Amino acid sequence: xxxxxxxxxxxxxxxxxxxxxxxxxxxxxxxxxxxxxxxxxxxxxxxxxxxxxxxxxxxxxxxxxxxxxxxxxxxxxxxxxxxxxxxxxxxxxxxxxxxxxxxxxxxxxxxxxxxxxxxxxxxxxxxxxxxxxxxxxxxxxxxxxxxxxxxxxxxxxxxxxxxxxxxxxxxxxxxxxxxxxxxxxxxxxxxxxxxxxxxxxxxxxxxxxxxxxxxxxxxxxxxxxxxxxxxxxxxxxxxxxxxxxxxxxxxxxxxxxxxxxxxxxxxxxxxxxxxxxxxxxxxxxxxxxxxxxxxxxxxxxxxxxxxxxxxxxxxxxxxxxxxxxxxxxxxxxxxxxxxxxxxxxxxxxxxxxxxxxxxxxxxxxxxxxxxxxxxxxxxxxxxxxxxxxxxxxxxxxxxxxxxxxxxxxxxxxxxxxxxxxxxxxxxxxxxxxxxxxxxxxxxxxxxxxxxxxxxxxxxxxxxxxxxxxxxxxxxxxxxxxxxxxxxxxxxxxxxxxxxxxxxxxxxxxxxxxxxxxxxxxxxxxxxxxxxxxxxxxxxxxxxxxxxxxxxxxxxxxxxxxxxxxxxxxxxxxxxxxxxxxxxxxxxxxxxxxxxxxxxxxxxxxxxxxxxxxxxxxxxxxxxxxxxxxxxxxxxxxxxxxxxxxxxxxxxxxxxxxxxxxxxxxxxxxxxxxxxxxxxxxxxxxxxxxxxxxxxxxxxxxxxxxxxxxxxxxxxxxxxxxxxxxxxxxxxxxxxxxxxxxxxxxxxxxxxxxxxxxxxxxxxxxxxxxxxxxxxxxxxxxxxxxxxxxxxxxxxxxxxxxxxxxxxxxxxxxxxxxxxxxxxxxxxxxxxxxxxxxxxxxxxxxxxxxxxxxxxxxxxxxxxxxxxxxxxxxxxxxxxxxxxxxxxxxxxxxxxxxxxxxxxxxxxxxxxxxxxxxxxxxxxxxxxxxxxxxxxxxxxxxxxxxxxxxxxxxxxxxxxxxxxxxxxxxxxxxxxxxxxx
Amino acid sequence: xxxxxxxxxxxxxxxxxxxxxxxxxxxxxxxxxxxxxxxxxxxxxxxxxxxxxxxxxxxxxxxxxxxxxxxxxxxxxxxxxxxxxxxxxxxxxxxxxxxxxxxxxxxxxxxxxxxxxxxxxxxxxxxxxxxxxxxxxxxxxxxxxxxxxxxxxxxxxxxxxxxxxxxxxxxxxxxxxxxxxxxxxxxxxxxxxxxxxxxxxxxxxxxxxxxxxxxxxxxxxxxxxxxxxxxxxxxxxxxxxxxxxxxxxxxxxxxxxxxxxxxxxxxxxxxxxxxxxxxxxxxxxxxxxxxxxxxxxxxxxxxxxxxxxxxxxxxxxxxxxxxxxxxxxxxxxxxxxxxxxxxxxxxxxxxxxxxxxxxxxxxxxxxxxxxxxxxxxxxxxxxxxxxx
Lengths: 980, 388
Known about the structure:
By secondary structure, chain A is an alpha/beta fold. In chain A, 49% of the residues lie in helices and 16% in strands.
């Protein structure tokens, strides 16, 4: 419902047409209503003033008309030619369905100046103008308006195409699986397969080999509830892991298995597209980046340092990856250290508290990076345990949680038993505390007793001294008086002496000396008198003191002689020693506690009887014991929960993990990542991932780094899907090309060309291939930008060049030609090439640590495997012979590539997929030998391939590295197998 | 399997005719306009604790182990894991880290006591607002089984073919109605969490709820939606206070039933039927038994006793032959048992009884349905009945 509110400021004049008037009157009559046209216009006016008048405009050819809705009527209005008024063309009763139009688009009009009815056009004042232009403009704007935040249409188209592609792929796959016939088996057995859970794993012997593939879901035809997943296929034997609860006895001895169409992958892709549609991608720039090539400027971190050394380009990628806000593309040709770069980026991002997702299309690629992470990083692997590599299994969430649980129980066992005494019904600590309390009780009561004794002692004194008190008091008073008197007398005498000496001194000299002599004489006299008085007073004071002393001694003797005093003293002694005993007991207990380690941080206690201090100590001990009890309980609970809480811990581990590794589809299908948001997604082998698969992890991350090489293998494209796309829609339909593009090119390839230098990095230094190989690869596929750092090494003595070719065109056509094999699709083998390669390997194998033979066709693979098995004395060479797909991402010391096609028509078939040639020859670490028919290859009908072939021939020719096959055959024959 | 956006119109009619003291006259299939307000607020989420987070917090708070290395030793966890967990707890403000010392915050302590890991977080949520009145919709409209459409159009393969008309209202979106919710104590009734702050509206978009409106003889409206097992009281109240809805319905010309149904019969190919109006106002078209059968041009057997709609009016398709009606009753019983919201035998039999009354037949019980299901080889239904 797109509504625009429009204010029409001026008065609006309406003039009814005759037809309208007629219609209206008739309708009103029929309805038995008496209100006239004026009432209708008044109603229009009221709605307009209220700003609630809905209007709908239509254009027929060049003519506009407008419908306004009142409570009961629909009024159709037309512009008048003079532009002053609106003509009422028709008035009809409103039908319920009329709302539907308004629901799509509507103008809601506000007309503050009202609607005015005029009987005829001429009556309309000339100064009124109909608001027609305003209405038309508002209406057209409305049509163009998009709801805010809506997706631009070309993004919607892109998502629609993606949906179509995914649905078509799903339908083709489902049909294929449904059409495939049930697979009969003649025997079932139990297996020795490694078990990771309680689900049954059983083996079945098929009547005919090759009809089931690993990873597919199957069920039994006789009971569709018995389902399982194929773990492995070995010729006629198929190993299946069944869903939980399957009873072995219910599986018949012979029967048939059906492949179940699994649309899990497609469902995930569709959910991803839906999430993008609803704007739920965590990276808001994603769609615009892919569809429009939008890139946001930023600063790479100039100071970031990796843990391991990186070369210049790797460092550039590293520094950009840490701060790029949208998407960074890293082009990593063979041997340029992609895994190393990815690992360093992941480690540093994790150190910066970012949550990192490492993902790729295949389990192998994901596990590759995982295995190189240091142990200090918290990394978990999420996915189906069957398809992970062995070493990656220990990163599996379940495995890590199990290990953690075991470790926790082991690590806490000792403390748990140590603390065990603090919990339980009659814990030792409680008894300790009780005993402490008892001692403190003793001490307190001893102290109280001592105080009582002191009081009692005082009572005795009072009793005994009571009768003698007045005498005592009198003696004390007399003594005090006498002493005071004596003191006064001494002071007076002292004063007299001072005066005397003063006068005598003055009498020695001076004019008035004789006066002073006279005064001195009188003063001498006075002093003598005073001195004598003082002596008397002193004697009297001494006597009073003696009296008092005698009286006191008498009282004391009375007290001491009192019997009660004895008793009190005895009690006092006993109580004091009891107090001492309690205090030393407490001190002992404190020591014990401290030395047991429990009371480590409790205050020390002296043995002095400070009961208050002891109370404080007791409180501290009680608290400490309570704490230990609490800890004991918590630890026991923790251990108990750890033992049985696997899924809660799994959720938590995902939350705390710094790095999560999963395949693209795996990020969505494992429920564990449902609410997890990643700060950074690093995608490996991005050149091999189709857009629907790539989007699955990217919508879960805020920003991403895509590492890949679109000059190596492209995304897998099912040929049926390709033919659907090629014939989809009309020949002229422009989206046909877009759909094909979406299928054939990875997102990486689509985006790489348009990225600026901040958003794309090429790793230009390769360390794997010998220079001779790398130079060719660089020129042919990387515009000469690839450089080599390689220790070098001796070339194979048969060829003397690290990159050489065996050319079979020296043989007649019937010897060197290919042979087409039977089958639904054309495939080829080549006897001569196979023989040559076998001889070559037989001769050279000892010189190399590892080797591989890569050929484009399955029949040639089989032929070579047979021949090589025989030639190498029965050793299993299945890991060393295959098509390019088996060796992607790997490397070998010796690579032998056999082109296989040889005919006189220049047919090279799917050799024209040049990227596969790139992958094949760039696996070589020390030596590359290609085997082929130069004539056929250089004359290929496919110009791209022909150019490559000619380029290679020229390149090798310049270096004399092309050897005729007969020549090589002879040379190989001369050297016995295993010689130097 | 496509899920229907709303039950067929006849179900609404079937219920409406049982409402006492009123007669339903016409039925209108509508798309009720709503606002879907995209809001954000700081809410207190109440997830359960996992394991390590709970015990780490308790170890700090209760057992007073407050140093990182001590925590690692006490719980037997690797120190890196402890730090990651503490970092997480610190982000949700349950703990404070000061170097290597950990302190539990108020929120953390509260969480431990309640054993719920309270987490204040920004949460975005879409709230539904009724467009005529600006009222927020109660909780029951937010269930996953209630389809809310984003466009004023409905995929016909997901309905019984009734023409759904979107209701129009010019009223603009008013933020205030949403923001008021923050102050309401009963906001949980409107699908907001109990603890919430700073409710803000980011944007508003259109949304539509399919519904049936039944016009009654007393000029009232009954409303039926997927949110209510019987009548939808919330929307009936909206109709009561919003006159424009009733106006629009009344403005729609009412065809004379006799003429309408005669015309309808003439169009149909399933033989001749007789029309009559029942005492409760409902019109009925009676066909003979041989007009019913599994293939066209016959009426399907399960149509006997139920309603067909045409031009907003409805008529009960009838057959005087009891066996046909009984067969229809059982077919409906088979359909009913699959309803996901059905939980007990008592409920089932209650519904069966209502339908039996509509068909003027004696009620049947679950056992009778079960026997019939066995006879017809419908074992899936048998197990469903047993599960009730």
